[in-house]
User: What shape does this take?
Amino acid sequence: MKIIKNTHIQKPPAKSRGFFVYFCIMEKQTYIYGIRAVIEAIEAKETLDKVFIQKGLQGDLIKTLENLIRKQGLNTSYVPIEKLDRLAKQHNNHQGVVASISPIEFHELDPFVESVLETKEAPLFLLLDQLSDVRNFGAIIRTASCTGVDAIIIQKKGAAPVTADTIKTSAGAAFQVPIIKVDHLKDAVFHLQACGIQVVAATEKAKNDLYEVSFTGPTAIVMGSEDIGITPSILKVANAQAKLPMQGPISSLNVSVACGVFLYEAVRQRK
Assistant: This one.
């Protein structure tokens, strides 16, 4: 699919299935409009980042779409029609449904981790727990690229989407750092631990500073959301917890900044 910067409407054939989908391409963000078009895109295995559905929308076709969304575990938001109108811009016939196609391909957890462990003794993974701000996400991806992170792991539901802002903030690193989507982040933690990878949770509730934790072996660092931090169930199963030493009256850092400190401490220890 061709990606262009200027906003305009196209009507190309979607793959080879014989149906047509309306696309709006806006700074590397591609949208699909219409209930049937989104259903067809899901069935065609398009990588949908998020599906926006008008609140209160009813009918047999929307029920079919919702069933497909549940089966695929897609990220969904029920929004006012005004939100859909803004997304659709000039294309008003959205029928109450707009879906965004991710500009990047996502990876599967099991085969990716296995392939990394075959080639590296001490891989470094980054798990983002319910991080929702796309610019923070982009900044973290950029730092992950600079620090040699092997992959970023996010949850399918609730995670920040990969948008034009994400890509811009990442300075293009979103195309370089592999991103893995999982149904449940806690299950990903268990899988990593079963593979011999220690999981370190970054939390202000920790007793130890990050400088007291070893990052020299196979490690996965967990960063929490901007507002509530790491999910308690993930904190409980982490191999270690670590915090940043705070000297001034402000007790926390922006999550992308905190993530950078953790990743560069791992880099320092691995020299």
